[in-house]
Design goal:
Number of strands: 0
CATH class of the largest domain: Mainly Alpha
Shape: globular
Distance between the termini: 16 Å
Helix content: over 70%
CATH architecture of the largest domain: Up-down Bundle
Radius of gyration: 25 Å
Order of helices and strands: HHHHHHHHHHHHHHHHHHHH
Largest sheet: none
Low-confidence stretches: 1-5, 516-523
Mean pLDDT: 79
Oligomer: single chain
């Protein structure tokens, strides 16, 4: 029988939820500040993107092994170490004198931040009794889904009104408060403490080869995903070589971990049917959620001329709706078949994305904002039920390992979703431009009429008829580019919408939890 927690779980929940919120928020607001960072540190736009890549690489390495680290160090001790390290590295980022130091400090921030999300989820799960774990996931879901929703607006406000350095410095006081609260509120479950002591008594068996393969494979994969589109994917020898390294290293890692007695990442957990399918669903949730979160602000900035701050305000209303809906879903999970909630979430998200395919160049702010609000209902009905169903049959002692894997899956899905969305956007724009240009010829009566009308308008402002013709042709070319860009965004939104519908058959592979019961394991 698990020991009753010493503190009210509703005091533990905001403490660990805020830690996860701080880490996820920092990623999205740092993205917004990138141009300011490049200008302040005399770096090019390409060079400044390593500020993001260095964080994502180190974070991707630590995230899957955070469960093992928590079991070796002690979950509370490791969680507090991550908070302290994240706050300190954030301070160093804010004080960085040049781009090189900032990249190094961001790497350290990624190492310490990698343990915050999975440990926060595991602590929440153990703090609540089984029948209330849906509400625990609601707290965690608000943190990891709401943060990227308000991040662009918050980051834009900070950089516009203060300086990009406060994007990082703001974490320091928050980290100090979190350290004090965690020290008082959080405790390790007795069975985890006993398991750790027994493991240390037998002698620590470190999976060095697994660690090396994980570092090599995740580093190569994350750089490929982050730099692939920029370097034209496999047309670049650098990207091709890294892709092969990632494939071989991660393939060897999977084979080694499945045979190792004490793996650094317990991939055997994926053999549980619900947990395996849950990871597929969580991967796609990250894929579509982050893919659309990147596309929508980009659409309003590129196509409608919004500022970074205005673009963030398009996303933010949906984030506030998630805060309201998540607790309701947390209560429904204990009373309803979670698979029905997941199906509803998939359909709502898909329909909202299909609604975005109706955007055009004259769309107004509220049309875009309401489309995002509709889409935000979906993730609220996905995140909690997926976690609830996924952990059926997972032992409580495997809480840390399972949490690390499913958070890693969501993060990789998000990275791939961003890469795929931006690639589709670029390639589709090229395709549509070629199709449209084929109709912009002197043999087209519509083209001749439009050029003639524009040339007459330009004639009053230029010296010659030839100059007027050149300006008229330039205007038409600009129109073709904008229409091609618009069609590319529509293609990208449609792809994400289809991706959610394709997942519906996966629900038939999942077992339903017993009525009124929560997962038997830690989650």
């Amino acid at each position: 029988m698990p020991e009753a927690p010493r503190h009210n779980p509703w005091l533990v929940a905001p403490t660990v939820g805020l830690a996860a919120f701080m880490e996820v928020l920092d990623i999205s607001i740092a993205n917004v500040a990138l141009q300011h960072i490049a200008g302040s540190l005399s770096a090019s736009q390409d060079e400044s993107t390593w500020v993001l890549t260095s964080y994502l690489v180190t974070n991707a390495i630590v995230l899957p092994m955070s469960g093992w680290l928590a079991s070796v160090i002690g979950r509370k001790r490791y969680f507090m170490g991550c908070i302290a390290g994240f706050a300190l590295s954030s301070l160093l980022c804010g004080l960085a004198p040049n781009l090189g130091f900032l990249i190094v400090f961001r790497g350290l921030q990624g190492i310490t931040g990698g343990g915050l999300q999975p440990n926060a989820q595991a602590i929440l799960s153990d703090a609540f009794p089984p029948q209330k774990r849906g509400l625990a996931f609601a707290v965690y879901g608000i943190a990891v889904v709401f943060a990227p929703a308000i991040g662009p607006a918050f980051g834009g406000w900070i950089t516009d009104n203060f300086t990009w350095r406060w994007v990082f410095l703001i974490n320091m006081p928050v980290g100090i408060v979190l350290l004090l609260l965690t020290a008082r509120m959080v405790q390790d479950p007795p069975e985890l403490v006993a398991a750790r002591r027994e493991s240390l008594r037998r002698g620590l068996n470190v999976d060095y080869l697994g660690f090396a393969l994980l570092v090599l494979g995740m580093t190569a994969l994350q750089v490929v995903l982050d730099k692939g589109q920029e370097d034209d994917w496999f047309a670049s020898n650098f990207i091709l070589a890294l892709s092969l390294v990632a494939l071989l290293a991660l393939g060897a890692f999977i084979g080694w971990e499945l045979r190792h007695k004490e793996p650094i990442v317990d991939l055997r957990l994926l053999g549980h049917r619900n947990f395996g399918v849950g990871n597929i669903l969580m991967f796609m949730l990250g894929f579509v959620l982050l893919g659309s979160t990147v596309l929508l602000p980009l659409f309003v900035q590129v196509m409608l001329g919004y500022t970074a701050m205005d673009a963030g305000l398009v996303i933010s209303p949906g984030g506030f709706l998630i805060m309201l809906v998540m607790p309701v879903v947390g209560m429904l999970v204990a009373k309803t078949d979670p698979r029905l909630l997941i199906a509803g979430g998939l359909v709502v998200c898909s329909l909202a994305l299909f609604r975005m395919t109706g955007f055009d160049l004259s769309v107004d702010y509220w049309t875009v904002a309401w489309a995002r609000i509709y889409q935000s209902i979906g993730p609220a009905f996905l995140f909690i039920p997926i976690n609830t169903v996924a952990y059926i049959g997972i032992d409580r002692a495997k809480t840390n390992a399972a949490s690390a894997i499913i958070n890693m899956t969501r993060n990789i899905g998000g990275s791939i979703g961003i890469s795929v969305a931006t690639t589709i956007l670029t390639r589709s724009q090229q395709f549509h431009q070629n199709v449209l240009v084929a109709h912009v010829t002197p043999y087209s009566a519509a083209y001749r009429g439009t050029v003639s009308a524009l040339q007459q308008q330009m004639a009053a402002h230029v010296a010659s008829a030839a100059d007027a013709l050149h300006q008229a042709e330039a205007v038409i070319y600009s129109m073709v580019q904008r229409q091609a860009d618009m069609l590319a965004f529509i293609d990208a939104f449609r792809l994400l919408g289809i991706a959610f519908l394709v997942l519906l058959p996966c629900l038939f592979l999942m077992r339903r939890p017993a009525p009124g019961a929560a997962p038997r394991g830690g989650h």
